[in-house]
Amino acid sequence: MQIFDYDNILLLPRKCRVESRSECDASVTLGDRSFRLPVVPANMKTVVDETISLWLAQNGYFYVMHRFDLDNVAFVRHMHAQGTFASISLGVKQADYDTVDQLVAAGLVPEYITIDIAHGHADTVKNMIGYLKDKLPKSFVIAGNVGTPEAIIDLENWGADATKVGIGPGKVCITKLKTGFGTGGWQLSALKWCARVATKPIIADGGIRDHGDIAKSIRFGASMVMIGSLFAGHEESPGKTVEVDGVLFKEYYGSASDFNKGEYKHVEGKRILEPIKGKLADTLIEMEQDVQSSISYAGGKALMDIRKVNYVTLGGANEGEHLLM
Ligand SMILES: NC(=O)C1=CN([C@@H]2O[C@H](COP(=O)(O)OP(=O)(O)OC[C@H]3O[C@@H](n4cnc5c(N)ncnc54)[C@H](OP(=O)(O)O)[C@@H]3O)[C@@H](O)[C@H]2O)C=CC1
Ligand SMILES: Nc1nc2c(ncn2[C@@H]2O[C@H](COP(=O)(O)O)[C@@H](O)[C@H]2O)c(=O)[nH]1
């Protein structure tokens, strides 16, 4: 198996089929909804909050609300009252089963539910998927995180409608250092490996550092990418604003960091500062334009045309050209 990451790959252009990049459609379908971009901000406390979730939903973007110190029932009710879809996260503990029961009792059906735990290839996830499919059969269930084809096959067989791939590639992840496991450093080829067996959408989660990495993820089998660090440093970002030598930053911490957990136990995340770079809406527009450019370089008009391109690997033993035959 070839091992590579975002920095070791470049996609190869095909003859252009548009006169303007505005003809290229960056939208993607997940479940029975279509979204402007194949990008979702990470379901982390320093990346999304209720206000950002509502704004994203109302402006044609997918979102996944985080699950920490949150009343999921009130959140779903609020989103539905605003006329938008509800997309929540759950864990696998008794409190999460209680949340499902409360949603059912209140007659609330979230359109999207993401089961979000560190080691998603687990019977606890199997049981939660089964519970959701029984109690909330109309909800679209995303399950993760995983990093192997075996896990993709199991999660799909257990009933997940989409899977999330990425164990430790994130900017505030320390899973690799603390446990010796994960896809950190080879996330893109792990995605390729997983995509070979997937029959349902994959969300590639973590490790995106540049907008071009979105197209690379699509090329290697993702339907969507989840991004934390590139979204954490905006004026509206929920993290605390910190001033260092006259420069403004936003704090960005891992969901498995002591900052999120409130205790130092099974810590697999850290806290960093991201420079503030303006408004979230502007970054999303720039991302859309960059994905449109990617589609045009792919010689296409639609997002999935990116899947048709060849690529080269740069540096290392795998260096060379890779042609689609
Ligand atoms: N994508 C990634 O690489 C990672 C992401 N995270 C994020 O951090 C947050 C917290 O995750 P998590 O700690 O799973 O959530 P929770 O604290 O809600 O734990 C979920 C359940 O899984 C158990 N659990 C957690 N890790 C493992 C493991 N390695 N093996 C067996 N059981 C495990 C926990 O029990 P117990 O704690 O008693 O073991 C608990 O019962 C999530 O948002 C997650 O996505 C965390 C680490 C890696
Ligand atoms: N190993 C850990 N992974 C974490 C933690 N908190 C979040 N995450 C994952 O990172 C991505 C975001 O990655 P980025 O490279 O875009 O910043 C996020 O979606 C989670 O999957 C953590 O504490 N430890």
UniProtKB/TrEMBL annotation:
Annotated EC: 1.7.1.7
Catalytic site positions: C173
Catalyses which reaction(s): IMP + NH4(+) + NADP(+) = GMP + NADPH + 2 H(+)
Keywords: NADP, Oxidoreductase
Residues noted as binding NADP(+) in the record, renumbered to the chain: 202-225
Segments forming domain IMP dehydrogenase/GMP reductase: 5-311
UniProt xrefs under Pfam families: IMPDH (PF00478)
Superkingdom, natural source: Bacteria
PROSITE patterns, per database record: IMP_DH_GMP_RED
MF-aspect GO terms: GMP reductase activity
Entry similarity comment: Belongs to the IMPDH/GMPR family. GuaC type 2 subfamily.
NCBIfam families the UniProt entry points to: GMP_reduct_2, PRK05458.1
Function field: Catalyzes the irreversible NADPH-dependent deamination of GMP to IMP. It functions in the conversion of nucleobase, nucleoside and nucleotide derivatives of G to A nucleotides, and in maintaining the intracellular balance of A and G nucleotides.
Name by which UniProt lists this protein: GMP reductase
